[in-house]
Amino acid sequence: MNTANKILKETGLRAEDAARLALECREALGDLASGKNRAALILLLRRAMQEGARVVRNAEQTVTLEEAAWASVEARRHLRPTTRRDLRHFVRRILRVEGAAKYPLREMRTDDCRRILAAAFGSSQSSYEKGRTILHSIFTYGIQREWCDANPVSRIETPRVKEQAILPLTLPEVEQLLATAQMPEFRDMRFSLRLMLYSGVRPAEVERVQPEDILRREQQLIIRPRTSKTGGGRMVPLRHTAELKAEDYRIPRNWQRRWKALRRAAGFRHWVPDVCRHTFATYHAAHYRNLPALQLEMGHRDSTLLRTRYTTPMTDRVARQFWGINKSESPMKP
Question: Are residues 186 and 250 in the same domain?
């Protein structure tokens, strides 16, 4: 008893405290501790205490979801500014869910993550999937930093996104955009408008075009890997640019604001993102009927997306009008 008291004195516990803790631990183990002899029971209690101590230590080392989320964003400084902007936008939506920001990362379970995703992105299937990917990456980063031991998002099923067809611009709408770009105050937008309508270049790619990417003599544009959405480079032909002067071949620095101003001046109050790209694909497919060539120009890995989302049934007569909309030019070949 004297030895026991000496050991307990170092811990600050009394004999009855140690006895009570041992009893509670044995009761918590239930059937695992039942029928064990003294030596086996001591080994089992020691193991339970060691595992419990590890859990307690880990709990003290964790961070909140908010801290982990912004740390993971900061760790992706190598991403493009626009990609990081989208990432921050989705992180904010996740953290705005009630109770999510201050939730200890290590304590979060799959049901917690599913609830957060449903509250933040439940109205949009595609946003839900992107939000799921970002939340998954936050936990992956947390595991690397030893803030948590598992990724609960891995158990959340990935919803199948059904791509919705986007209607292309009508011929009058295309004509209105082109006519507005002919106004002196929008001269700096003439080239970029044609890139979107007649070459299928994404708005984000247009914004990143550099002067050395424009090959006027060859009538081609280089979409470099650092510029493209998918990270793969490609060459696209320049179409309907015969009327442009040398000084028109440029992208204004404040391109996003100028593009929005042009749309408003043309009478568009609601604008579908990438509708110019869809317009290009639809009219190209309807007239030229060459999906492999179209796939190559748009930078797609296969033609699945072209068939399911980017093309709308259209007569060849209407498509010919689109490609010959500038009466000073004959329709271009793909």
Answer: yes
